Amino acid sequence: MRCLEIGPGKKPVKGFESFNLGEGKRTEGKADHVGDARSLTFSNNTFDVVYSSHCIEHIPWYQIEETIKEWARVVKPGGSLEVWTVNGYAISKALVEYEENGVWNGPPITEWNNKKVLAMLDNNPYLWASGRILSYPRSGEYDSNLHRAILTPKFLKQCFKKAGLKNIRDMDSSEVRGYDHGWINMGVCGVKL
Fold it and tell me: Which of 34, 42, 64, 88 could bond 150 through an S-S bridge, CB–CB 3.0 to 4.6 Å?
């Protein structure tokens, strides 16, 4: 069985070939493959499983559908594409509820494990929601860490359908193969028939 993880950074999932977006500080040279996630260098029908966790939101919003098609292209018939990302719907819903009734139904604002970011948030749900949806720069204003797309479960499933995948479903936290991003995490799986 051949499996590919797109965008694992320094911590690839065991048993998966890693495809990183570049060498350097965030990868420590551990990638099996390096390139552009929007244009994979593999033949059609190469992998039994293609897995990506918190990479797709870094692709510009207007390239999401084509990128999902590209990822599905390298999945073997009978194989699966699994994508985890920031749940834009859950975050937006919590923010709208806070705006309308002043009650924060999201996770504790202190959930973020970065002290610098926590100081910027100042326990403010508006800033927390913006930070979770858009992320924050780590090495400059145009850092690749910034998110470039807002994804929701319905939109991601729509992209999977347009890519020709079937048996599309939500995934639950027990199916996370690497790091679980907690409350903001959303996963969708589809099968190539």
Answer: 88
pLDDT tens-digit map of 84-119? 999 999 999 999 999 999 999 999 998 887 888 889
User: Per-residue b/e over 137-152, b at no fewer than 16 CB within 10 Å?
Assistant: eeeeeeeeeebbbbbb
Residue with tokens 């990638």: 31
The label of the residue with tokens 């903001």 reads 184
Rg (CA), the chain: 17
Nearest by Cα to 54 from 37, 70, 41: 37
Q: Tokens 């590919």 appear where?
A: 4
Cα–Cα distance for residue pair 144/56, rounded to 1 Å: 12
The candidate with the shortest Cα–Cα distance to 2, out of 64, 59, 58, 78, is: 78
How far, in Å, CA of 44 to CA of 22, rounded? 22
* pTM over the 0.90 mark: yes
C-alpha 164: how far from chain center: 20
